[in-house]
Each structure stands twice: as C-alpha cells, then as structure tokens.
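Record pair follows.
FIRST:
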Amino acid sequence: MHLAEQSNERRASGRFPIEREIRYRVLNKKSNNESGLGKTINMSSTGILFSTDHALLPGRTLEIAVSWPAQLNNSCPLKLVARGRVVRFAPGQAAVEIQHYEFRTQGAQGLSGVTV
C-alpha cells in the first residue's frame, strides 16, 4: 500500500473479506426483541460489515453471533459472539463497531435455532 493510500484509510485495523452466517439481535430497550439473520461481508478486530434486511439505525446496540470457520480441538464448532454499536447503515448493509467479543462453542445445528 502506498503512503498516500494509507493516509486516506481511517480504520485502525485491516478488514478481511469473509462471508459467514450471522444471527443478531438489537439490545436497545425499545427494540421489542428485534432480531435477524445475515452474512458477513468483511470483518476486522474492531468491526463487522454484514448484510441485513432490517433498518438498523446508527447508535443501536447489537449482539451478533458469527459462525466461525475454525474449530476447537479440530472437532467442536465455534461461534464469535460480539456486542457493539451500529455506526453505519445503508439499504441491505450495516456496520458495527465491536465493543466486546468472546468465542463460544456452537451446537451441532449451527446458528439456526440458537439465540444470540
């Protein structure tokens, strides 16, 4: 990357194009348990851009479960569970700034049937 390109980049960490299934739910009190499914578009250690059918307004707090490609001990599926704030929304896409995350084991059925 050239120095001129680096100076235009505002993100603190690099984004990686990765497509994984996600399940999310809005944590704000007025959300009425709003939740949905989508796919990641790209990820970094500080944020996730993903597809969504819902209008997720900036400022809303989400909990997101991402189907993780690696397994624990090569046998147990994992999911990344992150909490963060919606920082950007465009029709069909939302960007979340990760404020907290942890890895958890994922049941045999994957993210379907699992509450975030």
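SECOND:
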Amino acid sequence: MSRAVLVVDDDPFIRKLIVTTLEDVADFSLYEAGDGEQALELARRVHPSIVLLDVDMPRLDGIAACRALRKLPGAAAARIVMLTAAGTGHAAAARRAGADLFLTKPFSPLDLLKLVDELGEPGG
C-alpha cells in the first residue's frame, strides 16, 4: 500500500533535497507544496500519512497550516514534522497547532531517512 508524504517548504532547494533523499524509499508517494495554502489543497486530495512542514512560509505559514491540516478529514491523522531553523522559538506554538515532531534545519539526509522510516512504520 502506497503512503503519501507531503513536503512543504517555500525553498525549492530544500524541497528538492527532501524529495531526492526520500524518492527511493519504498511505499511512499511524494508530493510537494511551496506554501501552506498549496499544502492544504494537496492534502485534501492525497490524504498524506506524513507531512514535512516548514514554519516560515508566505501566504500561509507552517503553524497556521498545521492547525488547518488537523481539521481536514484526510490529513487529521497525519504525522506532522515541523521543519525549523536552528534557534527559532516556534516549538510551543507548533505543538499547540498539532505538530508531532521537529526537524532542525540544516538536517542530515540520513536523519531524515531514519525519521521517515520510523514514522512510516505501523504505530510509528
């Protein structure tokens, strides 16, 4: 069964790094969005099981997008990993919005693979 990973970041280089890192991971379909509004549109269609969500984005930031994703029937149960720059103080607001985990940028591709592998396991 294929599961969807939604990668949301306004930086196309970060999205490319994540997608390139994850593209050979079995059983995952990868989707990209450049901001929170695009993420919500995609989530309505693809029902992601994992969302990698940047905090600072135009149009709709990651905190607001996280809160909205938690209200979408097809995305409410997704594991949401906030992508945060080192030293930012968004953790409390992101947790209140429904974030499950945090990954600090810059991150290692190996750390990303390990995290997605763990989240992709049943009960992960």
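COMMENT: The chain has one domain: 3-119.
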